[in-house]
Amino acid sequence: MAVTGTGGPLKDDRASFDEKDVARRRDELLARARGEAPSVGGGGQRLMGLGVQFVVAILLFLYLGTWLDRKFGTAPWMMLLGTFVGAGAGFYSLYRAMVEENRIQDEEASRRK
Predict the structure, then answer these.
(1) Backbone phi, then psi, for 3, in 5-degree steps?
(2) Residues 62, 45: Cα–Cα separation, whole Å
(3) What is the pLDDT of residues 34-55, one digit of tens each?
(4) How far apart are CA 30 and CA 21, in angstroms?
């Protein structure tokens, strides 16, 4: 048995698994046995592109507002309106994705019980 500098024993590597790691491995094995793909990253993988999507929505509406300002000579009002509409659209998209992710996680949790 290995000893630390303070005199206490170190845990063996095989015995150092915490309960969450054991539960995660169990869920992966059960998913494989059922023929399902295990959810390695959970919801994080499904939500990775949301930040980029938010920025793209703002930039798209900002560009549209700038184009309208040049066309109608209303600078900077359409650009400002486009920025706020893009931010609103981005926030709405984030909200919908988060509600959907919450629903998916609730369904997964209810299936595990």
Answers:
(1) -125, 140
(2) 28
(3) 766 655 555 566 678 888 899 9
(4) 14
